[in-house]
UniProtKB/TrEMBL annotation:
Pfam short name (any one): MBOAT_2
Main location per the UniProt record: membrane
One GO cellular component, as annotated: membrane
Organism: Rhizopogon vinicolor AM-OR11-026
Name listed for the protein in its UniProt record: Wax synthase domain-containing protein
Membrane topology category: Multi-pass membrane protein
Amino acid sequence: MNLNLLPLICAQLPPLALQFAISLDLGAPWNVAACAGVFYVCWTCIQLFQNAKTGMIFLDYSIGMEIGSTAMDAIHMLLLIRPLHVFRQLKQTDSADKLPWFERFKWVRELCSSPRGIGWHHQVKNLPQYSAKSRTEIVLTLIVKAVKHYVWFDIGLYYMRNNAVFQSPAAFASQMLFRRLISCSLFLGTYFCMGIAAHSLIVALVVSCTSAEPNSWPSVFGKWEDAYTIRRFWGRTWHQMLRRYVAPFGKRLTSFIGFKSGTNGSSYTQLYAGFIASGATHLAADAVLNPAHIGMSVPFFIYQALAITFEDMVIAAAHRAGMKETIWTRVLGYVWVISWFIVTVPDYISALSLAGVETGGVVMPFQYLPPSLFGILINF
């Protein structure tokens, strides 16, 4: 078996370079040189990865996202702040810059490995917590969650294996809107269920076999019932893996322009800066997937900021008219959010799929996935 380790190296080398640079605690102008060095490592890894891609569109795109996140983190943690002086773990008393170099490096690795700041003073708000009390109950809950999501993953896998549109990105993109919507939902839902099942099993194993606190391993995603506005979807329900640098970019830009905190100018500057930063992160993923289509992901994220702006205007008008939040306004909100993603997601997924197949990728790597248990039962 020919094992290609280059994708793994390309995914891990940029974060390692960034962690080393942060651990040196460089001031100006050396921090600028260090940031340029990390950018060069990111660019080199993207170039190397072009000839060693896995061929799985979703995985290649994810590796590109990892590289892009590292580049954006470099701007944040090498140019805008000095992490060793700013960040602290919850139980930490002294500043990390006082530690010996090797201890600093270990500290930086822990910092970078927790993009949501779990166990740190900058921990992202609204992270889901486990309702069960005992470790045994939590482990059982996680196992049930993993099984439930694996069942849905298995059903989705069976459907896609037996549907011709998932064998060809061109066929996938050429479907009528309604059928393309169903296909996109199944495609995303199957990957989502696979990820949740894997994450739940890993956390169950860690919690049952180590002394790790369960709440130090929260779910990747928040509660779906919180997503009755697009703002809440992106701020609460969707993963918050980019928030560590996305939020500071917006705050720095707001401060530079001179908007006061709490004003509309401040709020919307942060909103648009955040989504632009998110789009910029996805540029690396675009470059990995297909260099000829760099920037194809960016419009999707700009549209989200525009939709939130429109949404805020409608909510403000409703409040001025005396409307109060009820269960029915939330139902209307869910309809709005679902409708919005029906309009925007299919084109985004289709663009990624077509770009990926142009460079030899596949939409769904069936050859690497297990046989469908659902299919076996049906054919038994």
